[in-house]
């Protein structure tokens, strides 16, 4: 990669400890290596997994930590081996910035399952330096992990797609759930959940939003266009909906019982886990065995799937539901996100923020 001499510096907002409070932080960036793209960050989405990381919920956090992994920005410089991108283009970068390139996953273009993948922040790059994320003025990203933004797409709209969007799109594609006419469930109506409704509806699916209360019923049906709404605490409604769904996308990021949702699946139905949960989940085996049902998971998506999803999003003329904030609001945004007080994704206007204050 680039020379370690005469390095640039940039400013980001970093957490220093498990309090998760972010504040300005100046740190070095490596020079642009042959395979690198030097990006000026314009927008960066805020994801629930950012909370897990800055607060050390998973017990693996290293500080100082600049979070942010839904990055859209402008190319300022490219390395000598870079041919797909040029200065001035608007591009995206997501949760990963490195992989081994030799394992079965990498050779199969599903580098998101590489056991040696490198996270965009809270990790160590191949040059030994800590990786830092998109709540910063600049990032250096290897070209493999940079995606083109289709012409005409608004950059602030694209940011949530680089994690939340592809996280939903990838399992639908992989498990053969893209055909029209399927009946799906979206469990939890947050940042990923709202993407799930939009993408699944665009595929022609009948979609039921499942939630613990009727608080989000109006927005699910009227704003997002879901076909039905199911309150999981309503035993009668849950019983009536038994054996009705081909799949459920489970986006809940905290511990919860699985049996009530397994009962909603048809024969061979799939419960697809997407929430990052640091406590064990439980279920009784007959709930799976007697319907040949599957409990599975999916992790973001490959770079190929990300580009495919962006093109799909553009062709279907979809839009993200976002709240744009400046960096000086980021700590309040984190508090609100933890309370699910956002419709449905915060996007930080990094370019329009004064990061050193």
Description:
- The chain contains eleven helices and 17 strands.
- It is an alpha/beta fold and 357 residues long.
- The protein has two domains: 186 residues, Medium-chain alcohol dehydrogenases, catalytic domain (Quinone Oxidoreductase, Chain A, domain 1, Alpha-Beta Complex); 130 residues, NAD(P)-binding Rossmann-like Domain (Rossmann fold, 3-Layer(aba) Sandwich).
- The strands form four sheets. Strands 3, 4, 5, 8, 9, 16 and 17 form a seven-stranded mixed sheet that branches. Strands 12-11-10-13-14-15 form a six-stranded parallel sheet, with helices on one face. A two-stranded antiparallel sheet has the order 1-2.
- The chain is globular.
Q: End-to-end distance, in Å?
A: 32 Å
Overall radius of gyration:
20 Å
CATH class category of the largest domain: Alpha Beta
Shape: globular
Low-confidence stretches: none
Mean pLDDT: 95
Task: List the helices and strands in order.
Answer: EEEHEEEHEEEHHEHEHEHEHEHEHEHE
| CATH homology-level superfamily of the largest domain | Medium-chain alcohol dehydrogenases, catalytic domain
Structural class: alpha/beta
CATH architecture tag of the largest domain: Alpha-Beta Complex
What CATH calls the topology of the largest domain is: Quinone Oxidoreductase, Chain A, domain 1
| Contiguous helical run count | 11
Helix content: 10-25%
How many distinct domains? 2
Largest sheet: 7 strands, mixed
Which range does the strand content fall in? Answer: 25-35%
What is the number of beta strands? 17
